[in-house]
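Example record

Each entry pairs one chain with its bound ligand, nicotinamide-adenine-dinucleotide.
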Amino acid sequence: MRRTFRRIRHADSASRNEFSTFAIRGEGGKDAADPTPAPESPMPTTLRSYWKNYVGGAFIDGSAGQRLAVIDPATGSRVAEIAEGTEEDIDRAVAAARDAFTDGVLDRMAPHERGAMLFRIADELEKAADEIAVVECHDNGKTLANGRAEVPLTQRYLRYYGGLADKLEGRQIPLGQGWLDYTVHEPYGVSAQIVPWNGPLPVGARSIACALVTGNTVVLKSPEDSPLSLVLLAEACDRAGVPAGAVNIVCGLGQVAGAALAAHSDIDHIVFTGSVETGKSVLRAAAERVIPCVMELGGKSAGIVFPDADLDQAVTSACGGIFKHAGQICSAGSRLIVHRSVYDEVVARLIARAGAISVGPGIDGCEMGPLISARQLDRVEALCRTGVEEGATLAIGGGRLPRAGYFMAPTVFIDVRPEMRIAQEEFFGPVVVVMPFDTTEEAIAIANGTDYGLAAGLYTRDLGVAHSVARQLVAGQVYVNQWWAGGVETPFGGMKRSGYGREKGQEALLGYMQTKNIGIRL
Ligand code: NAD
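Structure tokens for the complex follow.
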């Protein structure tokens, strides 16, 4: 799934920001039928050509002087470069985070002051909102609407956890006369965080927020496929007065910088979001040093359409659940299990919706952007070919669009059997597989019949069915009548091989603190 990187060596790396002549198209291509809301302010017209890592409160070049090319997935062209973090850079970042933790830079702040710091980061992010929207289009392939939505979402995380900073109370445990017993929450120390490319800004910010309010310092390895928005977060942290070394953000290749961070001898905690295979290698490294991990891994999440469902709502929700960000969302609804009595109707509506989606560069206001890389496009196409070979019917899509960039057609497979590879493996692309069912037990068995357990959904007007089926689905989140029902406040994470630990909501904070019990003989 990795993009092919071109390393570029620069003899002298300027310390100032560099701006390229790379021109960004403004609002070209929008038309009356485009549902993307019009931006409220003029968009920046240039993208910085060179971006740096943030270590010990300074923006720095890679220690080896190398850079990684940043490719726009909508064109396949290089649009910027970022300093390439090496093992040495990870060492420097971990040392900075360790020093900040040992110096007590966060411990000295009262909890409400740590919370106020997160509010300031959120405020500072506002100043970069337009730049972030443009960066997310060109670096990540997001639509302009989704790029714009990244900032308010990230601010919600920062303010939500900022507000909880002074509410992390321990317990007093009654032991009887002559005893006092209570618990306190303590940070782990240096929290190592490894983030995927599909939503680096909100995913990175929510982990950083949880770490800071609980008193941990952070080294975050940003994704080489989409690193730029996290540099803008680093700048917001810097302007907000986050103490030097408390937050360090380094971009580098997964097998180099990511592996070096996971195996580093001076980290105390790991938050990993990414694929199951990489997650396993991170866990092996963590096991060597017996350090705790939060693992947010992949998914193959299923929605069940019962015969009494509002079909219009169900299909609208299911389409949003798989075609948003071209299906590159861990909790995408990539399987649809439909009662046989409404199967033909649902399939017809799905095909019509999929065929009507405008696919193209997000910056042009299209509804669905590209996949992140040529490699990911090859992978998704190859799995589609497997589906056809397995005997599934390709109802629409199934291949790349004949244009520059890494665009995949919205794809619907029907007549799919649960044991087929396309019903078991994560595409991480705009592909939904549709399967019929006759009984509720059968639908639940199909939904639960993969290695994953990240999310699940169901569409029905019957509250009894909703509650009963929701309890039987093996998934960390269950959505009833709306895919992604929930929010910043609701715990999110996997069961089975989708991982463990929770992000979002109050539960997430539990993954960043250890409990100490203090018992006193009076
Ligand atoms: P990935 O596992 O390839 O990469 C994730 C991160 O790990 C990247 O920063 C990468 O550089 C790093 N990495 C790669 N090799 C490494 C190694 N050997 N040691 C340490 N770090 C390494 O995943 P991806 O392709 O970036 O993202 C897609 C996957 O992530 C999908 O499976 C998706 O479902 C999952 N995901 C899960 C969630 C969630 O919350 N559950 C959210 C987003 C994405």
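The first strand starts at residue 7 and ends at 9.
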